[in-house]
């Protein structure tokens, strides 16, 4: 199926949504040191990725700590609130989708197998990490294979594994949002497993909503990383919402989860396209 197909999810976000990070002239030396230190530790963490493949007791804790360290290297701090994080296995975790950073944010709270676009496997550094985390690849240009992806997710859930998916099907800037597509929720219905909605939002040091972490439009991975490590600090808030029982209707389940994640937040009518990292 063509990338121009009307059936593919489209975001109304583009480069104009993303906040720029321009350091004042008097702080450029400080920013340069900040970037150098963060980049150095990030490369060291990427070099340690093979250690994640070692089967050790408490591996989920290792993954959580690794993701938190990577967030810190990117200049991102995490704050978790809301309901208790239940130590359940075989849960479908869903949230809104802003950036590739979402993977580390969720991985630091509820690690699991991520549903990711197939191209991510070939990303430098992050692609190797994706393979070690055994992502479930999805090809947005061939939606005829979507039922196979849903079946794979259901099988993983039935095998006792936690799976993370982003039902919007594409990234948004974090100020505008997309509709939750029901396809991924069919896996939870088929497997008879609950869904854990998470509300993700990115903020600046002053607590105001920020789009620095957004990965939309014609943005590149390098430009996105540069924005993050240049900024003084970015905070990702992860709010744990009420666990949702699967029921028998995937559309009802999708609506319930979207309501839990969005609350009263309005959608924007901006034009543009998001990066479809995961569907």
Write a short abstract of this structure.
With 279 residues, the chain is of the alpha/beta class. The chain is built from eight helices and seven strands.
Q: What would your notes on this structure say?
A:
Pfam families: Acyltransferase. Residues 260-279 are annotated as: Disordered. The chain has 279 residues and is α/β, with parallel strands linked by helices. It has one domain. 33% of the residues lie in helices and 14% in strands. The chain is built from eight helices and seven strands, in the order ααββαβαβαβαβαβα. It has helices at 28-47, 59-73, 101-107, 126-132, 146-158, 185-191, 221-230, 250-262; strands at 76-82, 92-95, 113-117, 136-138, 163-165, 195-204, 234-240. The chain has a seven-stranded mixed beta sheet with strand order 1-7-6-2-5-3-4, with helices on both faces. Strand 3, helix 4 (126-132) and strand 4 (136-138) form a beta-alpha-beta unit. The longest helix is centred in the first third of the chain and has 20 residues, at 28-47. It is globular. It starts with 27 loop residues before the first helix and ends in a 17-residue tail after the last helix.
């Amino acid at each position: 199926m063509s990338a121009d197909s009307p059936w593919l999810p489209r975001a109304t976000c583009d480069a104009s949504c993303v906040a720029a990070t321009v350091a004042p002239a008097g702080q450029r030396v400080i920013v340069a040191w900040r970037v150098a230190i963060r980049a150095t530790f990030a490369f060291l963490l990427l070099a340690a990725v093979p250690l994640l493949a070692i089967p050790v007791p408490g591996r989920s804790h290792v993954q959580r700590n690794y993701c938190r360290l990577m967030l810190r290297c990117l200049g991102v701090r995490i704050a978790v609130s809301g309901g208790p994080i239940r130590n359940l296995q075989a849960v479908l975790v869903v949230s809104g989708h802003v950036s590739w950073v979402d993977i580390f944010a969720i991985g630091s709270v509820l690690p699991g197998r991520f549903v990711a676009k197939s191209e991510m496997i070939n990303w430098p550094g992050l692609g190797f990490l994706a393979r070690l985390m055994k992502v479930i690849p999805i090809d947005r240009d061939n939606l005829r294979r979507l039922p196979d992806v849903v079946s794979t997710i259901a099988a993983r859930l039935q095998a006792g594994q936690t799976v993370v998916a982003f039902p919007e099907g594409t990234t948004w800037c974090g100020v505008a949002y997309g509709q939750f597509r029901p396809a991924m929720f069919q896996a939870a219905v088929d497997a008879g497993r609950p869904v854990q909605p998470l509300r993700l939002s990115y903020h600046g040091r002053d607590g105001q909503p920020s789009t620095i972490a957004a990965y939309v439009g014609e943005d590149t991975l390098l430009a996105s990383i540069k924005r993050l490590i240049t900024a003084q600090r970015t905070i990702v808030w992860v709010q744990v919402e009420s666990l949702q029982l699967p029921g028998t209707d995937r559309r009802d389940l999708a609506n319930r989860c979207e309501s839990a994640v969005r609350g009263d937040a309005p959608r924007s009518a901006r034009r543009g396209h998001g990066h479809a990292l995961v569907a």
